[in-house]
Amino acid sequence: MTLTSSLIKERSLLGLKDLSRSEIESLINRAAYWEASTDKVTPILKDRFVANMFFENSTRTRFSFEMAEKRLGAEVLNFAAAASSVEKGESIYDTVRTLESMGIDAGVIRLKPIGVLAELAEKVGVPLVNAGDGNNEHPTQALLDLYTMKKEFGSLNGLRVSIIGDIKHSRVARSNLWALRKFGAIVKLCAPEVMKAPELESDAPYVTMEEALKADVVMMLRVQLERHATGMLKSAEQYRLQYGLTEERAAGLASHTIIMHPAPVNRNVEIDDAVVESPKSRIFPQMTNGVPIRMAVMERAMRL
C-alpha cells in the first residue's frame, strides 16, 4: 500500500489537541459500530502488517491494540525495546525506519521522550499511531474515555468532569482535557501543589478535592509511586488521605456520578480497593471499550 504524504498524515493519530471534533466523533461512532458487531474477526485488514513498537513498558495498551488489530485480520509484529537492538544503542528512528523498510503498513508507538513521535511522523512513509508519548498525549486512552462517558450520559456537552491526581506527569489528563473541551464538557483539575501542571490552568481551573468530587465523572489518575524517591510525596498513605478516592468520599458522590481511571490502579492509594469494583466504577468497562476504539483507529490508519 503506497500512500501520499498527505494521506499518511490524515491516517496517523499523534494526538487529540489538534484533531477536530468531527474527526473524534467519527472515530467514536465507528467504535460503536465495531462494538455492536457480533463477529469475533472481520478481516478488512487482511494482508496488512502493523508493528506495535513499545519503547516503554505497557501491558493493557499493547494487548488492547493487538486484540483490535487481530480482530480486523491484520498481521501483527510486536516489538519490545528491552529485547531489541535499542538496548545495543540503535536509535528509535533507525528502529522505526528498519521496520518500515521491511514492509509494515502502520506503526503503533509508545515512547518516553516528548517530541520524537512528531519528528518520526515527518520522516517515515507509513501512518503512525500514538500509544503514549512521555507526558504529552495518550489519544486512544482519551478516545475510549470519551466513548465510555458518551455511552453513560448520551452527550458530553455540559458534562462536569474532574481529573484528579498527578496532572503534571499525565498524558492521559492532557488528551482528555483537550478532547473534552471540544465537546463542551466542563473540566476541572485537582492535584497536590507539586503535581500541578501550571500551563494547563488556562484550559481548566484547579479546585479543591471537595469541589472536584461534585462532578458527573470523577477521573482518578495513577499515583506514580516510583517518583516518591524524589521527595514528591511523603507517603502513599498521606496521598490517600488527602487526594485518594476513599470509601467515605465515594459514598458522598452524587447517585449518577461515575468513577474512571486509566489503569493500572494503585489500590488503596488513589482509589480504595472496595471502590475499584463498586457499582459506580467504570474502570473495567473502560478497558473493554478500548478494543473497539482501537479497531476504529487502526482501520482509519490502514484500510484502503
Characterize this entry briefly.
This protein has helices spanning 5-11, 21-36, 60-71, 92-101, 116-123, 139-153, 171-182, 209-212, 236-243, 247-251, 273-276, 283-302; strands spanning 49-54, 75-80, 106-111, 128-133, 160-164, 186-190, 217-220, 258-260. With 304 residues, the chain is α/β, with parallel strands linked by helices. It has 2 domains: 5-138 and 288-302, Rossmann fold, CATH 3.40.50.1370; 140-283, Rossmann fold (3-Layer(aba) Sandwich), CATH 3.40.50.1370.
Report on the structure:
- With about 300 residues, the chain is of the alpha/beta class.
- The chain folds into 2 domains: about 5-140 and about 290-300, Rossmann fold, CATH 3.40.50; about 140-285, Aspartate/ornithine carbamoyltransferase (Rossmann fold), CATH 3.40.50.1370.
- The protein contains 12 helices and 8 strands.
- It has helices spanning about 5-10, 20-35, 60-70, 90-100, 115-125, 140-155, 170-180, 210, 235-245, 245-250, 275, 285-300; strands spanning about 50-55, 75-80, 105-110, 130-135, 160-165, 185-190, 215-220, 260.
- Helix 2 (about 20-35) packs across helix 12 (about 285-300) and helix 3 (about 60-70) packs across helix 12 (about 285-300).
- The longest helix has 20 residues, at about 285-300.
- It is globular.
